[in-house]
Amino acid sequence: MDCRPFAAAALLFGAACTQEAAPSPEYRPGDAGTVDHALCLLGYTAVPLREVTTGHHLVDAEINGRSGSFVLDTGANVTVVQQGQAEQFGLSGQSGGRGAIGRAALPAGAGVATQAGVDSFTIGPVEIRQSRVVMADMGQLLGSLSQVAGEQVAGLIGQDVLTEHRAIVDVARPMLYLMAEDEDPAPVPADRCSEAGEQAAS
């Protein structure tokens, strides 16, 4: 297989080969003794991730009813939609220059960042408690990742979402776990996890 290294600034893309499809991780919240079961009992919901050969992980998200692929980026403190795809998600910057933001840890070369309000935002079955995202031009960075992944990457999911939903990432499987409810993890009825397992299997 021909592997050609390429660089993309702060996203630290290393050598990458053509992406090969990997099987989706099996979700088993009804099976006692599994990580899925333990986290389900604490109120977490699992969302499958797709691993790219660069080591990055993609997740499907829906903003304003329109879906796209996003890369998980724990180094970014905000969630960002690629400026060139903002219209696809029904986003537009705030008027009067108030959309500009000051402190946002974005990848180098991302350019000017502006805020945009969102009406709805979901990752898997989880409704994200966030009324704004950031728009910025990350064309070169996301373009490189899109090429390797074999699909268009619309932006990145940052710490704002991950922190709000107490995210846990199982890199080995790979799986993202999010707290759907705005509360501390607390035991839930075991039958809820059995039902979730039956839904995942169907």
Can you describe this structure?
- There is one protein chain.
- The chain is α+β, with helices and mostly antiparallel strands.
- It has a domain at 49-165: Beta Barrel (Cathepsin D, subunit A, domain 1), CATH 2.40.70.
- The protein contains four helices and 14 strands.
- The protein has helices at residues 35-41, 139-149, 159-164, 190-201, and strands spanning 4-5, 15-16, 44-48, 50-51, 57-63, 66-72, 80-82, 114-117, 121-123, 126-127, 132-136, 153-157, 168-170, 175-179.
- The strands form three sheets. Strands 4, 5, 6, 7, 8, 9, 10, 11 and 12 form a nine-stranded mixed sheet that branches. It has a three-stranded antiparallel sheet with strand order 3-14-13, covered by helices on one side. Strands 1-2 form a two-stranded antiparallel ribbon.
- Strand 5 (57-63) and strand 6 (66-72) form a beta hairpin.
- The radius of gyration is 18 Å and the shape is globular.
- The termini are far apart.
- The relative contact order is 0.24.
Largest sheet: 9 strands, mixed
CATH 4th-level superfamily of the domain at 49-165 = Acid Proteases
Q: What percentage of amino acids are in beta strands?
A: 25-35%
Described by the principal axes of the CA atoms, the overall outline is globular
Provide the structure class: alpha+beta
Give the SSE order as H and E letters. EEHEEEEEEEEEHEHEEH
Give the helix proportion (percent range): 10-25%
Which topology of the domain at 49-165 does CATH recognise? Cathepsin D, subunit A, domain 1
Which architecture of the domain at 49-165 per CATH? Beta Barrel
What's the helix count? 4
Number of strands: 14
What do the pLDDT scores average to?
82
| Alpha carbon gap, first and last residue | 37 Å
Q: In terms of per-residue confidence, which ranges show pLDDT below 50 for 5 or more consecutive residues?
A: 1-19, 95-99
Radius of gyration: 18 Å
The first-level CATH class of the domain at 49-165 is given as Mainly Beta
